[in-house]
Amino acid sequence: MSKVLVFTLAQPGHINPSLPLTEALVKQGEEVIYYTDSQYQAAIEATGATFRPTDAPSILANLTGRRGMSDMADFGGIVDKLAPEVQAEHADYVIYDSMCLWGRLLVEQLNIPAIRFNATHAFSNASFTPITIALGMSPVVKFVLPLLKRSVHGIQVKHKLPTVPVNDLYTRPERLDLVFLPKRFQIAADSFGDSFKFVGPLIERKETGLGDFPFSELAASGKPVLYISLGTIANKRLDFYKECFTAFRDRTDWQVVMSVGKNIDMSELGEIPANFIVRASVPQLKLLEKISVFITHGGMNSTMEALSFGVPLILLPQMGEQQKNAQQVVDLGAGITLANSTKSKAPELVQALNIVSQTASYRQNAVIMQQAIRESGGIQQAMQGITEFKAKYLPVNAVMA
């Protein structure tokens, strides 16, 4: 078969959606070499792919402590490190993450046929881009933007690439764009051409901790289950978790499951109400089978996973992309957004639960989205798109080998 390189931004929301696709490529017989940060080596190797580190010195990583942020903006060292390695691989094609500009610049520098995957909304001038999102975000992200532009321009000049604006690198289509959303959820969906394949979320990853989670308690209670999680990045919100205790400790008609992340010291939470199950992490996919309402930050992975199970949402967006996701959920009638996000007080949280749980249309519309996700085709449709791409753009010997 063929040799394919995968380039991905070093963040869970970009790594996790790529893993089922990577595993499917390996099972099909492709030789897959996956480039990202070393912290994800075990997850990559579990798919059967060969892992290669992108680790390179970064001013931004030192300042923020976030390797994923440095991959997104200050990535000149990554390009310099990887260019000779990638060239020596003589790969047949590349699959790269839409947020991974160092991946796109390597593709352009080395002139390799490429597929882009979009773990969030596909970007266009009619929808939005990371640049437009960044302009409305925190001072840290606004600091990143000029660094991103400088990094991209420096690479373009150094490697004699066309000096196009950063926004164009995000919005210019690839020969094939795999979008991990149903088209119904995409912002400005009709603005995208035939090269964009809306295959829906690839929800086939393996979960750990199934044996440790007290699923029997949920079954024994016979109560509807409220699930609360702020994802894996901006989840250090001790005050919010305590506010949830205040809001729902007396709602004994509900069983509450709350995931607080690895950055919270459980002892700081204080007394945990009797109707709460609190864990640093939970097997979310298995849990969603049993959930009635999900209070979430609105990250794309969590949003798509919830809608895949027909679960209505209460959204507390904290970042620009999450705000876009939340607005889509609201527009589709599958949930509501709280304007105060994680600063919402107990009465607001209680009112939101009452609205979503007692209004049948939210569950009905979430189920409509569940069906749209199923009809998008998932991993099978993604693999079909890759097969057609190879037949069209790769030499016959690369396709048939």
Question: Any overview of this molecule?
Answer:
This protein folds into 2 domains: 222 residues, Glycogen Phosphorylase B (Rossmann fold, 3-Layer(aba) Sandwich), CATH 3.40.50.2000; 160 residues, Glycogen Phosphorylase B (Rossmann fold). The protein is built from 18 helices and 13 strands. The longest helix has 20 residues. It is α/β, with parallel strands linked by helices.
List the helices and strands and how they pair.
Blueprint: E1 3-7, H1 12-28, E2 31-36, H2 41-45, E3 50-53, H3 59-64, H4 67-73, H5 76-89, E4 93-97, H6 101-110, E5 114-118, H7 130-134, H8 139-158, H9 166-171, E6 176-179, E7 196-198, H10 215-221, E8 225-229, H11 238-248, E9 255-259, E10 276-279, H12 284-288, E11 293-296, H13 300-308, E12 313-315, H14 320-331, E13 335-337, H15 346-358, H16 360-376, H17 378-393, H18 396-400
Parallel strand pairs: 1-2, 1-4, 2-3, 4-5, 5-6, 6-7, 8-9, 8-11, 9-10, 11-12, 12-13
Helix pairs in contact: 5-6, 11-15, 13-16
